[in-house]
Specification:
By secondary structure, the protein is α+β, with helices and mostly antiparallel strands. It contains 11 helices and 11 strands. α9 packs antiparallel against α10.
């Protein structure tokens, strides 16, 4: 017999741990599976009314993770469960073999995962289902208790999802450049403050867009904004959006850890080839450090100096072509 009051009290403790909000949902799922003696606990979120993604999971020892295999699950596969929630709040599957006759499409997803029993409930906000959560293979003798607990937990988990989205929105406004979608100066300042000086294989590149002023003056600021966006996309394509920072105006910083100097140079060569194909010109200065005796500020100054030398050469060459 599961002590429901103690269970819900502990869940609420997790839900109010604001200082650890990034791991709250993962911790709740772990507690859920362990307490209910289940093999796996998980959350699926509805995406644009078209499909479902398994966004969170916790697996007991010896249980194979399934999250990567359960992305873009068609809406019609899970639609039946929404109808079950309307009628009964939760869905209990006591025997997976018998369930094949009830929902063959869903059974085709569940059976390969080694699921024998299952209890699932809805995630709901403002009167609308936004997904579902559940546990796999809880003991049959606990199924009624598990269903009652999941029914009560539905609101708490839904609020956790809503809080996560709100925090992500705040973080995006604070640390993401609104024009390009790459990180901004505030995000890079955090990198500098939290950086571990013992880390090695650090690569920094500073970039400045050549010709932005001409584009703004001759084609308008929309054209200038497009050039900034296209430059950010080019950098993100090669280095990954998480490693690109717009410092303001037409200036970017690329910060990459864990790559050798040769590997970073290969990435720069790929970038240059792509820029040439798009007729985008970036002045670039880059440095590599594989020692733990350095400072980011010093690397930035060196990269900045190299960038301005590259910019000088570009405009010097452009003037010669104009003669």
């Amino acid at each position: 017999m599961i002590n429901r009051e103690e269970f819900l009290t502990n869940i609420l403790k997790y839900a109010t741990m604001i200082d650890k909000h990034e791991n709250i949902i993962d911790n709740v799922l772990e507690y859920l599976a362990k307490t209910l003696e289940a093999d796996r606990s998980y959350i699926f979120e509805e995406i644009d009314g078209k499909y479902f993604n398994n966004t969170y999971e916790w697996c007991n020892k010896g249980v194979s993770p399934q999250k990567d295999n359960l992305q873009n699950v068609p809406y019609e596969v899970c639609e039946l469960w929404y109808k079950e929630y309307d009628a009964n709040k939760t869905l209990i599957i006591y025997d997976m073999d018998e369930y094949k006759n009830v929902a063959p499409k869903m059974h085709a997803y569940l059976e390969p995962q080694g699921i024998r029993t299952l209890v699932t409930g809805p995630l709901e906000l403002n009167g609308k289902y936004i997904g579902f959560y559940g546990v796999d293979n809880p003991p049959v003798h606990n199924m009624e208790d598990v269903a009652a607990i999941l029914s009560t937990l539905s609101y708490v988990l839904s609020i956790m999802i809503a809080n996560r989205d709100a925090l992500n929105k705040i973080q995006k406004m604070t640390f993401i450049d609104q024009l390009t979608g790459v990180k901004n100066r505030h995000a890079f300042d955090l990198i500098k403050k939290s950086f571990d000086p013992q880390e090695t294989s650090i690569n920094i590149m500073m970039c400045d867009i050549n010709g932005l002023k001409v584009a703004n003056d001759t084609k308008g600021h929309k054209a200038g904004d497009k050039l900034i966006l296209d430059s950010a996309n080019a950098l993100s394509r090669v280095f990954g959006k998480d490693n690109v920072y717009r410092m303001g105006g037409d200036e970017f910083v690329v910060f990459v850890k864990g790559k050798s100097e040769d590997e970073f140079n290969e990435m720069i060569a790929k970038l240059q080839a792509f820029l040439d194909s798009c007729d985008i010109h970036l002045a670039m200065g880059y440095v590599h450090n594989n020692s733990d005796k350095f400072s980011i500020s010093k690397m930035l100054r060196e990269a900045d100096s190299k960038m301005y030398e590259d910019k000088r050469k570009f405009y010097s060459k452009s003037k010669k072509h104009q003669r």
